[in-house]
Amino acid sequence: MHVTNESERNPLVPPPPSKKYIFVKVLSCPMCGVSIEDSKITGLRLNCSQGLDPKRGEGIAVSVRRCNHCNLIYSSPLPIPYSLQDHYGIPPADYWGREVFYIDENYFALQIQKAKELLNFKAGMRALDIGAGLGKCMIAVSVAGFDVDGFEPSVTFREKAIEIMGISPEKLKLGMIEDVEYPRESFDFITFGAVLEHLYDPGNAISKAISWLKRDGVIHIEVPSSDWLISKLVNIYYKMVGVNYVTNISPMHEPFHLYEFTLRSFIENGKINNYQVVSYEYTVCSLIHIPGFLHPIFRWYMAKTNSGMQLTVYLKRS
After folding, report:
1. pLDDT band with cut points at 50, 70 and 90 for residue 91
2. pLDDT > 70 fraction of the chain, expressed in percent and rounded
3. How many whole angstroms separate alpha carbon 155 and alpha carbon 88?
4. Full DSSP string of 100-126
5. Is 129 helix (H, G, I), strand (E, B) or coil?
6. DSSP labels, 194-231
7. What is the pTM assigned to this prediction?
8. Residue range(s) defining the domain that contains residue 11
9. Whether residue 167 is found in the same domain as residue 51
10. Residue 272 is part of a domain; what is its CATH number?
11. Both 51 and 69 in a single domain?
């Protein structure tokens, strides 16, 4: 991704006192690399929950774009915090809820099963969890027979992973993907579980992970889908009531999503970073904003049309 740093923060949209940002203009799509000129502004996104009437919200708004080539949704300018801990240096229970320290016995089981099928698994294969959080995925993958490492950029999350979840400090590095290093071709299985949408340059992050992947290894990625039906319906509603806002992404408030992806986003990025999508699936996920009696209809339609909330892809080196 090519960016140019605006020399000063825009004085017309000063950040709130608790968070300070640098606003960076995006020059090309972070996944397929085409010029920003080949994209469309779909609306604005506030740095707070917008509800049904964004005009009542007060805060900073950034433009949201959809790439015409790969349909990636992203913001330009891209808000980058002065300190990463402004985003993720918060108590894990505040970010995810109190149940965060409990691990269900089936946690990450389907993803591990799929990875093993694609890998022709043998006990002791090495795995890497990118953005390990509290280490729940590391624990599940270790129980499944992998030798697991991970890294996590949040100080508080890493501390809790070590203190409460029992992760070895030697196995869990502190750092961002831009700074962390591993030898080339070190891992059989690498996972970005709900991580890639938080990274400032997802294409470069995948490129780095590919360099750490063994020749027959597998990368697993779970991301928000830019074709999610509920977002499209909310955006239609916003247009009907005459507001220039969209519900996609949340660059400056929890959960700090910077991107939404399509399958084509990964296919086009694979041409740049020399990998192939070997398996994928869309998951309906939450329907909390839809009346319960409509859930069966919505689930059927979203499954039929690949318009669920989450996209999961499995990648192999070309």
Report:
1. low
2. 88
3. 8
4. GG---TTTTHHHHHHHHHHHT--TT-E
5. strand
6. T-GGGSS-HHHHHHHHHHHEEEEEEEEEEEEBTT-HHH
7. 0.89
8. 3-87+226-260
9. no
10. 3.40.50.150
11. yes
